[in-house]
Every structure is written in C-alpha cells, then in structure tokens.
Design goal:
- It comes from Luteibaculum oceani.
- Keywords: Exonuclease, Hydrolase, Nuclease.
- It is globular and about 75 Å long.
- The chain folds into four domains: about 160 residues, OB fold (Dihydrolipoamide Acetyltransferase, E2P); about 180 residues, inorganic pyrophosphatase (n-terminal core) (Alpha-Beta Complex); about 80 residues, no CATH class; about 110 residues, Diaminopimelate Epimerase, Chain A, domain 1 (Roll).
- By secondary structure, the chain is of the alpha/beta class.
Length: about 575
C-alpha cells in the first residue's frame, strides 16, 4: 500500500542556529529538539536528564486530598482494602503497583482482577458482590471505574468507601465515590492529562508518601511498573510520562524485580531494555494472561519476590503468549477471507464478525486488519447472548467520537481516540455496521485513509557519526509524542548483494551519490517484495531511523527502513 510522506515543519533558521550554538550540537539535532518543543538550555537539560524533581505534585489533581485522607485512615485503622483493576497490561501493572506497595505497610489487603470472559471489562457485579462478601471497607479501582455508575453504587450502598483511579474519558454522570482521581475530569487542574491508569495509581501512592512521610525509595522502586504500563497503553511519552518511563527503565535495567527479569529471560532478551522491549516483549506476555487464562496470573508474577516462583510464572505466560499468537494468526486469516468474500475492502470501514472467534485476541486482530486495509476497524465475536469486540482507528481519526454517534445500537462502549471496546445485542449487528460506515464516511477526510509517515529531517549518510548517534540515543525514551527521529535519505544506491531474511525482510547496504566510500547496513522489515526494485541500479529515496544492531557480540549502527520510493 502506498504511503504519504509528510515532513515535520522545520524551525526558523536563526532559532535553530542559536540553539545549536548554545548546546554545542549539530543543526540537525537542534532542529529535532525544536520540533519537540525544546527551545533553550534549561528545557534541553530537563529533556536529556529526566529526574524525580520533574514530577508534578500529586495534590494538584482533583480529589487527591480526599483520596489520601481516606486511604491513610484505612491504613491506620487496619480496614480491609481491595485493589481492583482491569485485566490488560495497564490494569494488572497498576494493581501490582498499588497492592504491592500497600502490602509493605498493611496486611489486611487483597486484589481482584475480573475474568475477561465471565465478567468482561471494568467494574463487574460479580466483583462488587465478592467485595461485599469479603467485608471490604475500601475499594480502590485502577484503570477503570469512571463510567461504572451502577456497579459502584452496589459498593457504596453497602457502605464501602471507593477511590477511583482512572484515565479514560468520563461520561455525563460520575459514579458516587469518596474520591475520583482522573486528570481528564472537569475542573481538574492537574497540568498533565495523559497519564495511564497505572500512572494515576502512582500519583495516589505519591500523595500518600508525601502526606504520611513514608519511604520515598520504596515508591521509586515501583516505577518499573509505571514504565511498563505507560509504554503498553500507547499514551504519549511526553512531559510527566516521559519522566516516569525514563526513571522506570532505569529501575528495570539496574535492579529488575524478579517477575520482569524472568519475563526477559523467558523471551531470550539479554540487552539493555528500552520502550520497544516493553511493548513487544513484556506487554504481550502480560496481556496473554488475561487473554488466554486469567489476568490475576500477571499480578502474581509482577508481585513475586522469589526468583524461582517468578521464573515458573514467567514460563507459563510465555507459553500462553505462544498460544495467543497462534490464535490471532488464525483469526486474522479468517477475517481477511471474510473481507475479500464480502467486498468489505471497498468500504471506509471494516466490520467483521464470527461467533467462534476468541474474545481474548479480537483487539490484536483489529490492529492487524487496520494495518492491512487502513480503515477504522471493528472485530466482533459472540459472548454469551451478546456480541462484543474491539475497535481500532487510523491516525488522525477519533473512533471513540464516531462510536458516540452509534450509541443507540450499542449496549456498552468505551475507550480512547484510537482504540475502544463495545458490546451490543446480536440483532443490532447489521444496523450498527451500516451506521458506523455512514458516520465514518461522513466524518473522515479521504487523505486519512492513506497511511501517513511523518519524518523529521533530511539527512546525508556522511552526517551519521558516533557523536551524532549518541545525542540521538539520549532523546529516548521514544514513543507517541516523542517518536525516534525518522530521516529522509535521497539518491541512495544498493552496494553489494541484497538478501531476504525469514522470507519477508530485506537486508542490504546503501551508499549515496557523491560519497560512495560511505555505506551503511539497512534492514527493511516486511519489505521483501522491494528486492527487485532496489537492485535495478537506479537511485531511490528512503525513510529510515538509526539504531544499534547487536549481533554476535558486535555492535554497529544500521538504518531501519520504514519505506522506499523511486527517486524523482
């Protein structure tokens, strides 16, 4: 599929030159920093050196005073506390964080993760009944609860205090609770709105530590879980999220908890850990617990202090993840057949349904289909007597907003701009599909249906030096809002022999007009079909990032190619 290449606007020449001189960096680096809002020495210092002092006061968040007071009283009076979270990475990491921290000071505590298949997403009736039966005095919800008006009323009617820690958009009606912590709620003055659910839970603990003079070092040691949740939940890695992620990665690389160490050992990862490793190695295995077995297995792993137990739990999640991969590959193939048979590829949306599909992997399949057809996509399966599923969007289109216009056909929905979940009655599927197509067709600009790649700067191979890359590396952690810099290389040629790896990846070396003595290795994932094109001896242009390649004890810089086009 052809892609649009869009350059990020470059800053003014005088501004870039000035910053380049102040920081003693190349003009390309100063341009990259200015594109990210870094415009002076102090902001550059904060950007390159994330530290605890950059975290905002938790008491800037609406409801924090009441939440900390309520939690502190429960600890002092030895009340029964239940920590409740969703079954995905954000939810289970948040539960492991809050449960693990509070358990160091309080024994009368337990955690609860709903069963994906028996209870579904969020705060469940079954969970509230369990809390009442167990005599819970305080319920802390993490990564859920902001829309659980009816189910949380069961708890509050039973005399249970409720603290909600959530980051999803609130509905028109808020649940009754002792305190609600959500930077997206109205009148919340918290300066950063994009924390994940685990991040909000961390702010609650930060407030508790400050109010009751608890050991700060015990809290900072939990930042590994915040980094994992932040990376996995695809929230912007900017501002406070970037600080939390950087500090959390430092914990992971210097003193990993047994569960995290065991996960990487099970996956065979031995190099320094970055955001990509959290997204592609840790997150799928944690998610596999809730998708295939039960989310509580992930919390157990992340809460273990003993390496032997953690190793066994990690091996189990590794096996579950392999099972999950097999399932989503089979489902994706079946969905693609359905799309071709029904001519859905001609529409502006993709809605596919099979009652036999596995509920635990519909979100992954929706992401795969979105990559293939680049349309807002809904993948549905049967759950009891209802139809349920996941929604994924394309860059720039708010699918949650589109679902709001389809709410008459839905029993329940919720999520973010680019990802959501929904439930409907079986007889509403056709009407929903038609309405979703109508809403998206009306609202989406046609250019958003063509994949876009934004690149930061044009670069010449001669500009890639060890010093240049070392500065680039310090711009990490990368993620949404601070993606790894992507460069345009013009008039490049293949040097030597190219080859296909694993049947689908392309490995080759490039040089550039005028500097044939300089060449760099390239890897182009999933671009085996480009082999003949790049070997036709004609110049081409490509978009690529710069990374270190670790192989057989050697480390070399390589270009990771995102797209290739003819040189015009």
């Amino acid at each position: 599929m052809d892609k649009r290449w869009t350059p990020t606007p470059l800053p003014a020449e005088d501004q870039s030159s000035g910053l380049s001189q102040k920081l003693n960096v190349s003009k390309v680096i100063s341009d990259l920093l200015l594109q990210r809002g870094i415009n002076d020495f102090e902001s550059a210092k904060s950007f390159f050196r994330p530290n605890i002092g950059q975290l905002y006061s938790p008491f800037l968040m609406k409801g924090m005073d009441a939440a900390v007071r309520c939690l502190g009283m429960a600890l002092e009076q030895q009340k029964k506390i239940m920590v409740y979270g969703d079954y995905d990475v954000d939810g289970t990491s948040a539960v492991a964080l809050v449960y693990g921290f509070l358990k160091k000071y309080h024994n009368n505590i337990e955690f609860y993760i709903p069963d994906r298949y028996g209870e579904g997403y969020g705060v469940s009736h079954q969970g509230m009944s369990y809390a009442i039966d167990q005599g819970v005095d305080l319920l802390i919800t993490l990564d859920c609860g902001i829309k659980a008006v009816e189910t949380l009323k069961i708890a509050t009617d039973a005399g249970i205090d409720v603290i909600i820690c959530d980051h999803h958009f609130p509905g028109n009606e808020l649940p009754i609770a002792t305190a609600i912590l959500n930077p997206k709620q109205k009148d919340c003055a918290y300066p950063f709105k994009e924390l994940c659910g685990c991040g909000v839970g961390f702010k609650l603990l930060q407030g508790l530590v400050e109010k009751y003079n608890l050991e700060e070092e015990v809290l900072w040691a939990q930042l590994d879980l915040v980094a994992i949740a932040t990376a996995a939940d695809i929230v912007p890695i900017v501002d406070e999220n970037r600080t939390l992620t950087a500090l959390g990665l430092s914990v992971i690389n210097s003193d990993p908890r047994p569960g995290i160490q065991a996960l990487f050992e099970a996956a065979g990862n031995k190099k320094e850990i970055g955001v990509g490793d959290l997204v592609f190695t840790v997150a799928p295995r944690i998610n596999a617990a809730g998708r295939i077995e039960h989310g509580k297995e992930a919390v157990k792993l992340l809460s273990r202090d003993e390496m032997d137990e953690a190793t066994n739990l990690a091996k189990n999640l590794h096996v579950l993840n392999m099972e999950r991969r097999q399932l989503d590959q089979e489902m994706a193939a079946e969905a693609l057949e359905q799309i071709l048979a029904r001519g859905l590829g001609e529409k502006n949306t993709t809605v596919v349904y099979d009652p036999s599909w596995h509920k635990g992997v519909v979100g992954i399949v929706a992401s795969r289909l979105t990559e293939t057809y680049y349309r807002p996509t809904v993948v549905l399966c049967k759950s009891d007597d209802k139809i349920t599923g996941s929604v994924r969007s394309v860059k720039g289109f708010d699918v949650h907003d589109a679902l709001c216009e389809c709410s008459d056909y839905l029993e329940q929905f919720g999520g973010h701009k680019y990802a959501a979940g929904l439930t409907m009655k079986a007889d509403r599927l056709d009407a929903f599909s038609q309405k979703f197509e109508e809403v998206v067709s009306r609202k989406i600009p046609k250019e958003l249906l063509i994949p876009e790649i934004e690149y930061d700067h044009e670069l010449h191979l001669s500009q890639i030096t060890g010093k240049f890359y070392n500065v680039l590396k310090q711009m990490a952690p990368f993620g949404p809002g601070n993606l790894a810099p992507l460069f345009l290389f013009k008039e490049v040629f293949v040097q030597g022999r190219s080859r296909i790896l694993g049947g689908k990846h392309l490995k080759f070396n490039v040089t550039q007009s005028g500097t044939e003595s300089i060449h760099f290795p390239c890897i182009a994932f999933g671009m085996a079909e480009k082999l003949q094109f790049i070997e036709n001896q004609k110049p081409f242009q490509m978009l690529a990032s710069i990374e270190e390649n670790h192989w057989n004890g050697r480390v070399e810089l390589q270009l990771v190619v995102k797209d290739i086009k003819p040189e015009f």
